[in-house]
Amino acid sequence: MGDNIEFNLPNNFRELKARFASSLWIIIAVLVLIAGFTMFYTIQAESQGVVLRFGKYMKTVNPGLHVKMPFGIDRYEIVQVERQLKQEFGFATSGATNRSQYNPSSAEREHERNMVTGDLNAATVEWIVQYRIEQPQLFLFKVREPQETLRDISESVMRTVVGDRTVDEVITIGRQEIEVEALIQMQILVDKYELGLNVDQVQLKDVNPPKPVQNSFNEVNQAQQEREQMINVANGEYNKVIPLARGEADQKIQSAEGYALKRVNEAEGDVARFNAIFTEYLKAPEVTKRRLYLETMKEVLPKLGKKIVIDAEAQQILPLLQLNDNASTR
Question: Buried (b) or exposed (e) across 119-151, using 16+ Cβ within 10 A?
Answer without folding.
Answer: eebebbbbbbbebebebbebbbeebeebbebbb
